[in-house]
Amino acid sequence: MKKLALASGILLQLHSYKAQDTVQSRNLKEDIALLNSNTSIQEKTPFLKKEWVKKSVAPTLLFAAAAATWGEKENIREVRNRYLPAFKVKYDDYLQYAPAVAVYGLKLGGVKGRNNLGRATLSYGASLVIMGILVNSIKYTAKVERPDGSKNNSFPSGHAAMAFTNASFLHKEYGMVNPAYSIAGYGSATLTGLGRNLNNRHWLPDILAGAGIGIISTELGYFFIDKIYKNKGDNLSMLSRIQGNDYPSFLAIKLGTTFGTTNFLKESELDDKKQIGFEGGLEGAYFFSKKWGVGGDFSFSSFPIKPMKVNLDDGDNYGEHEIITQSLGFLGAGIGPYFSHEFSDKWQLTLKATAGYSATASGKVFIKSDSIDSPNHQLEIARYKPKPAFRWNTGASITYKFNPGLGLTFYTDYNEIKSTIRYRFSDAIQENEELNEELNHMIAKEKINYVTLGLRLTAYF
């Protein structure tokens, strides 16, 4: 009996061990299956956070701006011809290379960047090859005449493409070390593009398209070389730990469309419609805390004045004519308080109120008719000269940050200028004492109020 009890106990104990082993085996299999199923589930990356989307935003905006300004390129050149007709300073031939020179100077000086010297040179070389192919393929296919009439290879700007390739090279190598490198690089590239326009060598769309090609060429150059090395950079893990400050100080390039809220030449009776123009410039602010800072802007805005049809039939049967007034241009600068509020690490609201100075371009007034015997059937009848005036400006903007150092900003500004304009008529009128006294001392006080809607490429430092 004792043997039977002992045997039964041993069998029960063995059965228990087997059951436990079966349960453990089953649970282990289930856990492995569950683990495999979990690892197969991957979170979808939001569209705006996809790496290729982030890298393509700036070039896309530049190409879109080139397309949007294509129809206005003649008007933009007219502004240049009025302000700086004799400008001829060839700094742009040299400044385009400055960011690349800075990269090699920093590396030879021992400052660690994203890559070592050899790999950085490979990435830069690949970028230049891509840029050269894109620029020259388009240049000699489009065959757009330069604004100075010298050649038919204006679009896109090779200088701008080179400058922005070099600026992107500096940004790639040292932007993570300090955002100031990126700001300096893209600032010099922007000045290069501006020089091409001021020297009358390129239309504005040429420069915008060249800038987009330069940025995308560098992105592609790094993409291919990174694939060869199978990583994102030699020193990236070290540099990625470097953090910027928490204050939203920034420098931005801006471009927008302006909408007049008043008839600019109402008192002068030279227009009867609210005008639409464009604005471009630089804006920046230094913040002393996360909320408050001081900043300002330097901008240029231009408004083409639509011709007015008039009937001069006063018995001499002059018939219908057009009064043509050259566009109004405003060069303004202002300074004032800035307020910032971050909704998240990606979205930021900025408010501002600035006061400053506005200088307005002088211009001419013409009368045009088929009956006027001149090459363009028009006759100059007057010149106008606005006085410099006080300008105040207020605005709001919302920024989407691609990373802590770079963002895209939608902004809206309201500007108000009270301009005093003096008109001086032609020599023929000056010879008539009565008309000279009445017309050549004519002064009109105009309200120049307008709203701007536009985009800024914002770099934080």
Automatic annotation (TrEMBL):
CDD domains from the UniProt entry: PAP2_like_5
Name of this protein: PAP2 superfamily protein
Phosphatidic acid phosphatase type 2/haloperoxidase domain segment(s): 121-222
